[in-house]
Backbone:
């Protein structure tokens, strides 16, 4: 089995259809396969073998897609690193995955660690516009592809062999590498196409980050599997996205709730209406969609916002709120071949109406966390993935999210673990003690707030703390708000009471 088999088959069935559109550049299905095959040949000549890890540290681009499928074709594993990561984060993920090759985008070379700090990396391949090969880089992406054969015989692996490693932060603050297999991704791609009705005549917009499981699998891999066109944009910027949608006649729109809110409030109604004139389907995930926003969207465009739920560890789709039986506020019912239950604290399945932890079983559940058997054993119990989300099921089998077990902050659909931010804060010489929480925000859902007790005699501003965090972490993880306190609330055992901090923030006392 190999995810890339779908690309090979689509080259036979409809070679001239659009596969990738990236600005003024476009690839037919056959052309995209040819470039992916050239990259596969290049990797084999570099000695890459099945099971080897190749890190991708780059933004949304056709090159990401080409490299990704070239990696899969040789049976290697694509390791996605957030393009928002800083050097210290890149270093950890490259070393943790023991990557042999690092493919880096032109704008991200400044965050690539010194070679001595990433000893398993044998080659750094750069994607960029500079002439020649810049310092710290071994090979230029397009020069590497030049002259290579246009056909590569895809290597088939065991269905349970790793295809992707996508890093997600854990409660300890250290990112964990989620290993998704060829079977995981193909099962999710097939269920996505079936549930959402995607066809090869569709044109999907992708401005959400392709290093993330939502865009990587639910949008990118699903589009390539069915033979639909993928319209890639580097990021969400309102006017460029709307212009591209109009030009490319996008039929399917994927976003998180924050972006829906921004679109509805955009002052240029004509530009928005022209962009959405061809759109037939809207999807939202990563955070709960406010009922009022869904109502306004339907009133404005005549389109329902279809919602789903899942996590990186479930490839990511686990449930889908079907258009033909849509329940507002629900995350829907399980996608095909997937089971979802509500468990008690003693891992006992609960009946409808009772609140407990959502757990998942099916072909979408990850193989495990890379090189982390303890975390894997804690997450997968008797074949069931424990999600950490609290919810309930109604009498019709529709599921609802009630709350989160952990302290995770969800800002515009991006998950942020407080402990990771706290570890960076504790490295600051002025910080004696700290706690990071999420506080409500009308647009982003939640903002990161740092509550800090300063060392005696220390003098630092909140803005300086924020700038410092942005120098050490991806910018979205850095606090947007800082509160200096004389002391943090604690239990009798000395544990910082974040529930009390959140209560204080809600009541305006923080």
Residues:
């Amino acid at each position: 089995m190999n995810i890339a088999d779908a690309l090979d088959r689509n080259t036979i069935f409809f070679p001239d259809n659009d596969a990738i559109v990236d600005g003024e550049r476009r690839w037919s299905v056959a052309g995209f396969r040819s470039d992916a095959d050239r990259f596969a040949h290049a990797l084999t000549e570099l000695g890459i073998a099945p099971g080897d890890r190749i890190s991708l540290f780059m933004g949304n681009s056709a090159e990401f897609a080409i490299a990704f499928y070239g990696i899969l074709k040789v049976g290697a594993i694509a390791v996605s690193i957030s393009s928002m990561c800083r050097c210290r984060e890149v270093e950890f993920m490259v070393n943790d995955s023991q990557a042999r090759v690092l493919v880096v985008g032109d704008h991200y070379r400044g965050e690539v660690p010194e070679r001595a700090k990433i000893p398993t990396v044998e080659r750094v391949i750069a994607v960029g516009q500079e002439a020649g090969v810049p310092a710290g880089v071994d090979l230029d992406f397009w020069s590497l592809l030049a002259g290579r054969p246009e056909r590569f015989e895809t290597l088939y692996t065991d269905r349970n062999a790793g295809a992707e490693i996508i890093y997600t932060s854990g409660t300890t603050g250290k990112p964990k590498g989620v290993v998704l297999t060829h079977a995981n991704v193909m099962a999710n791609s097939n269920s996505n196409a079936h549930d959402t009705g995607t066809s090869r005549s569709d044109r999907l917009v992708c401005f959400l980050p392709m290093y993330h499981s939502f865009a990587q699998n639910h949008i990118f891999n699903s589009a390539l599997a069915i033979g639909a066109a993928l319209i890639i944009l580097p990021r969400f910027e309102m006017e460029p996205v709307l212009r591209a949608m109009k030009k490319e006649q996008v039929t399917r729109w994927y976003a998180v709730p924050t972006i829906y809110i921004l679109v509805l409030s955009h002052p240029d109604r004509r530009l928005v209406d022209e962009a959405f004139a061809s759109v037939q389907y809207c999807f939202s995930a990563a955070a709960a969609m406010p009922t009022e926003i869904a109502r306004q969207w339907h009133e404005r465009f005549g389109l329902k916002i279809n919602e789903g739920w899942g996590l990186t560890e479930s490839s990511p789709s686990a449930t889908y709120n079907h258009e033909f039986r849509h329940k507002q506020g629900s995350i829907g019912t399980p996608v095909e071949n997937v089971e979802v239950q509500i468990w008690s604290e003693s891992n006992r399945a609960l009946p409808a109406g009772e609140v407990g932890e959502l757990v998942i079983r099916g072909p979408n559940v990850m193989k495990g966390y890379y090189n982390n058997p303890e975390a894997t054993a804690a997450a997968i119990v008797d074949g069931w993935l424990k999600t950490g989300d609290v919810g309930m099921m109604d009498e019709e089998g529709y599921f609802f999210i009630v709350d989160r077990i952990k302290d995770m902050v969800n800002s515009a659909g991006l998950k942020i673990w407080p402990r990771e931010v706290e570890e960076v804060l504790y490295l600051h010489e002025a910080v004696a003690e700290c706690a990071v929480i999420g506080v409500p925000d009308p647009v982003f859902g939640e903002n990161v707030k740092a509550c800090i007790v300063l060392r005696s005699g220390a003098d630092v501003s909140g803005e300086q703390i924020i700038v410092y965090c942005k120098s050490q972490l991806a910018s979205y993880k850095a606090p947007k708000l800082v509160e200096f306190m004389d002391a943090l609330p604690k239990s009798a055992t000395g544990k910082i009471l974040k529930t009390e901090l959140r209560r204080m923030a809600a009541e305006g006392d923080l």
User: Anything to note?
Assistant: The chain has a mean pLDDT of 92. The two ends are 54 Å apart (CA to CA). Residues 5-182 form a domain with the Rossmann fold fold (CATH 3.40.50.980). The first helix runs from residue 5 to 13.
